[in-house]
Amino acid sequence: MKVLIVGAGIIGMSLAYEWREKNPDDEIIIIDKEPHEAFHASGRNSGILHAGFYYNTDSLKAKLTAKGNELIKEFCKSKNIKVNKTGKLVVAKNEKEIEILKELERRSKANGAGAYLISEEEAQKIDPNAKTYKLALYSPKTASVNPREVCKALKEDLESKGVKFVFNMPFEKYNKSYDFLINAAGLYADKIAHKFEIGLEYTMLPFKGLYQKYLGEDRIKTQIYPVPNIKNPFLGVHFTLMADNTIKIGPTAIPAFWRENYVGFYRFRMDEFLEILSLEAKLFFTNAFGFRDLALYEMRYYLPNNLIKEAKKLVKRLRGEFKPYPAGIRAQLLNTKTLELVMDFLVKKRENQIHILNAVSPAFTASFAFSKYVLGEKSESGDTGKRG
Fold first, then answer.
1. Which of 107, 174, 197, 251 is in the most buried spot, having the most CB atoms within 10 Å?
2. Is the pTM of this model over 0.90?
């Protein structure tokens, strides 16, 4: 069988990895419109290996993240890739957030994520710089890796097993035959699915994640996150302790105006701009899923001082300079009929096709478990995942 995978990100490559394990004699070709693997979200994320306590217990994210955390750590160990075992503190600001922490602990127990509540005093022992109100949630399984290093090792592993990569090759220009299609095209996965009349009720609504790199002397010892709004899929501005112990703050969740709206007019496309602007205007005026409130709140982060000010709420000391860090784009799926964000992973299947329509965070963490799940059911047609 000849298998065509569109997208050389962590999801496309982990699906190839799993397919090769199950079908060692099949021909697998991965195409990507970019010049190398992990060009977009897979190479631009923070490399955080999430534990899996944020997610509703009936979701795919809940089912796959904890296992994915184990599997990607095993892969890193096999390739001698450093895993920075940082752990994570989710810190509270008031009594209302304490209640959300308790809900996150409940989800953690149900999802096998291993996170648990600790006192303010215990939190100070883990990281003296963290600032919390009464309690915090501690996640010992959270870690960080260099995402580009992981993706590079995965690509090399696949090539050693006969998987062929073709870069600078958009799906529209690929004119060779194939027996099975896997669409893992990230920001353009919906567009490819639509060519097959699949997932027409969905479209990509991109969000821009801005970061600042911290250059000061005050340190942190663990990942420090705020209590999130559990009604949306964003985790809020937080401190990331990366694989090399570099510290950055972010990300934002600013509505983007075209799909690869990283900086300035980079890859500006008028058709995308008009399409997305029209959609965002509708969401703004209806305030669907609180979009207007979110947009107005997040847009202020275009001023770096506002981002820094928000981050400082999580720590006791933060002195020193910051500099911009490369932005990322979240390929967030929207249901255009209900005007709701798709909160969970979403996969659409046909007889000889699999379309990965929504693979946002924690998809990097869950990737190996996600691929086992998807390909374990590849012969079944239909939909997999929650819709929002």
1. 251
2. yes
